Amino acid sequence: MRVAAQRRTGFVLTSPLMEGTQRQVRLDDGEWVEVVRVGSGEPIVLVPGLAGGWRLVAPLAERLARRFEVIVCGLRGDRFPAGGAWARDMGDHAHDVATVIGQLGLERPTVFGVSFGGAVALELAVEHPHKVGALILHGAEARFRTSIASTIARRVLERFPLPSDNGFVNQFFNLLHGGKPEPGPLAEFVVERCWETDQAVMARRLALLESFDASDRLWQVDAPTLVLAGSRDVIVPAARQQALASAIPGARFETLEGAGHVGFLTHRREVARQVATLMRQVRHSAC
Fold first, then answer.
1. Can you give the residue ranges of every domain in the chain?
2. How far is CA 124 from CA 91, 127, 251, in A?
3. pLDDT at position 159, please?
4. How far apart are CA 137 and CA 224, in angstroms?
5. 266: Cβ–Cβ under 8 A, 6 or more apart, which residues?
6. Rounded CA gap, 139 and 158, in Å?
7. What is the mean pLDDT of each successive set of 10 residues along the chain, which is 287 residues long?
8. For position 273, what pLDDT does the model report?
9. Which of 3, 29, 85, 280 has the CA that lies 20 to 30 A from 230?
């Protein structure tokens, strides 16, 4: 099923709504992650992607916060190089999100992961199913397949100190749009937010994705699941995301027509509509 695309005339950057709402949550090993809470209503834990942290997903969080309470859960490593321990694998990240859910006293919230955060959310749903009331995945698959572009990007990030606006890596960021983006606020927003993440952290997370594989554990997902895929996603093509949905019992698959890997930004109105539909279904099934 396809979700109709709506042409956008401009990109509204994040408002001050989320600024000042951050807090630090301490994990089991003493590490801290940043958590942002905004809105009211049924809780949605939003797990951001490989780079950009909560500020990259802030426009989506603000849209969802019109109807729900949104908790954006930062990832271990966001504070690097200020300090902190590395995650050894995706399981560590999933355990961290489970810890945050417990620390905040949330009872089986909806968990929404985008891109790298989608892998974290999937790992959480597989290994900690009692923590997840519903699952939403965007730009994720059960086993991420490396490409020449991602391999080159990781090796460059690992080996060469780069300025915060490196043309080569920016080309990789441009792939997030599904093609060369039109110059303007949206393209600038994505690049600026991504470069707020240290390049060593980006390289580390790319390496974790290369070893991530939940394909033989999907039967353990015990929550209503929605998989949202951009029709122009060249990072994780829609066909592979549809295969993920088909492998999860009862999962629903939707295509965001015209969206790339950052459909959660460009098509956030449609994303919010699909989220609201899933939340209604979860409420009705609980009655």
1. 2-145+212-286
2. 8, 5, 16
3. 47
4. 11
5. 8, 177, 186, 258, 259, 260
6. 24
7. 40 58 84 91 96 93 96 88 77 96 96 97 97 97 70 48 56 68 79 84 88 96 97 92 96 96 94 97 80
8. 97
9. 280
- In sign, the C-alpha dihedral spanning 4, 181, 16, 46 is positive
Tokens 């707020």, residue located: 196
Estimate to the nearest angstrom the gap between the alpha carbon of 45 and the chain centroid: 10
Listing from the earlier edge strand, what are the strands of the sheet with 32-38?
A: 2-3, 252-256, 225-230, 134-138, 110-114, 43-47, 69-73, 32-38, 22-26
Closest listed residue to residue 263, CA positions, set 150, 160, 178, 151: 178
- CATH number for the domain formed by residue range(s) 2-145+212-286: 3.40.50.1820
Provide the token pair at 37. 């809470």
Query: Encoding tokens for residue 218?
Result: 């999907």
Residue-level pLDDT at 235: 86
Q: With contact defined as beta carbons under 8 Å apart, do 245 and 252 qualify?
A: yes
Residue 42, class by beta-carbon neighbours within 10 Å (0-12 exposed, 13-18 middle, 19+ buried)? middle
Pairing of strands 22-26, 32-38: antiparallel
Residue linked to tokens 């449609």? 270
pLDDT of res. 99? 95
Cis-peptide into 183, omega within 30 deg: no
